[in-house]
Every structure is written in C-alpha cells, then in structure tokens.
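wait is this the right file?? whatever heres the structure
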C-alpha cells in the first residue's frame, strides 16, 4: 500500500463497503472515489476520512506511524507507565523564566507591561525552546475546543515556524491571531485544521493566497493553561 488511495481501498475492503456504496455515503460520485484510489485522498478530505475509519491522519496520508489511535491488539507486553506520566512542566524545578505577554495592536505584536507567565527554565530546555523566543498570548477563538479553551493562555515558540504535520501553531492572518493544526500539501499549499471539526472546515491556502492575505506562521504552541470561569455547585 504505497499511496493513500491504496490505503483507502483497503479500508473499504475491511469494512465491507463497495466503492459505489462509499461514494453514496459521502455524497460524491463513484468517479470521485476512483480518482482518490488512483491519485490519492485529497488533503481536504483526510481529516474526514481518518475520523470515519478511526485511523491516524498521518497513516492514511503517508503510511507512516501507527494505523489506529488506540490499537487493541499488541504484539508484546506493554511497558509499565505511570498513570500520570511527568511532563516537562511538572518534572523540573529550579530557576523560573518570565515569558512576556503580547497582544496585537493594529495588527502588530506589542508587549503588555508587567504581564508575564513564569515557566521552569529546564522545561524550555527540554523542549529546545530558547527563552528569548517564547511569548504568551490569549487563545482568540473556539475552533480548538475542547483541546484549547477560548481565552486560554498560550505559550508560543517564535523560533519554530517550520510546519510539522499535525502540530499546533499560532498564525497571523490579516493582522489577526489564529491558532490551528497545520499540514502542508503539494506546491506549498498550507492547510489549517481545527480541533472542532464539526463546526470548522479545513481551510486551504496556496502560496499566492498566503501572501495576498498576509498569512504567516507566528510559532509553535507548546503550552496552554486555563482557569475555570466559576466553581461548580
């Protein structure tokens, strides 16, 4: 199975679906499905089909990584792992770094005097984030719910703008802050994915559109925190 089209065909066979039945279910023509078999699954459809068949998007696209998010069958006894494995922010102690808070003023980044977040210096070192590249901003929208709540405090590494598929990034789009998972398509096309896929469609931008709409990657979002709005009960 060298292409995403081959993997899609195998998934249909596993589910006992004919290409015609699948086309009717997805509200496309059988010719569309045949084209997907031959040319590969369109990037704009990867999230939809990965969710439908309960497989990893990365596996469906490239064949890399595990096929299923939570494989039931294991070939060997799993290693013992703690119920709450330590994270870089919980395992390290010592010197704290003040990460400055930024906001957008007429489309330009500006610091907010006296507002910052303290993070362990060793945590940044583990993540290979240079302290001078780390900034804080507020989550601007609800598109990443329930993963990232609206108005959560984001910590962004401005030193990492290279797109790694599936990672979460902060972007500037016509002077507005956005947060999305990103992937790259052919010819430099950038795809923006939301965690709330039901209410937010995948967006596609060609290099020309990126330039025309001043859409740029601000940096990798490596931490977020959020207080509940009120106490329950």
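ok assuming it is, sequence goes like this
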């Amino acid at each position: 199975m060298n292409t995403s089209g081959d993997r899609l065909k195998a998934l249909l066979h596993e589910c006992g679906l004919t290409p015609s039945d699948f086309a009717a279910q997805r509200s496309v023509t059988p010719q569309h499905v045949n084209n997907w078999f031959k040319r590969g699954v369109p990037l704009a459809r990867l999230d939809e089909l990965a969710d439908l068949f309960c497989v990893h998007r990365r596996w469906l696209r490239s064949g890399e990584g595990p096929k299923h998010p939570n494989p039931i069958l294991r070939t060997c006894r799993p290693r013992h792992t703690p119920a709450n494995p330590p994270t870089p922010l919980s395992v390290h102690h010592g010197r704290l770094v003040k990460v400055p808070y930024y906001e957008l003023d007429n489309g330009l980044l500006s610091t907010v005097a006296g507002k910052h977040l303290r993070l362990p210096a060793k945590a940044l070192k583990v993540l290979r984030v240079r302290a001078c590249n780390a900034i804080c901003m507020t989550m601007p929208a609800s598109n990443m719910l329930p993963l990232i709540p609206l108005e959560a405090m984001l910590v962004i590494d401005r030193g990492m703008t290279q797109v790694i598929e599936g990672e979460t990034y902060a972007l500037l789009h016509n002077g507005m802050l956005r947060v999305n998972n990103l992937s790259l398509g052919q010819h430099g096309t950038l795809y923006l994915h939301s965690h709330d896929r039901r209410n937010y469609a995948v967006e596609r931008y060609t290099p020309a559109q990126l330039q025309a709409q001043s859409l740029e990657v601000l940096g990798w979002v490596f931490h977020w925190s959020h207080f509940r709005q009120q106490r329950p009960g």
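Strands lie at 96-105, 108-120, 134-138, 153-157, 168-173, 176-184, 190-193, 203-205, 215-225. so i think its the right one actually
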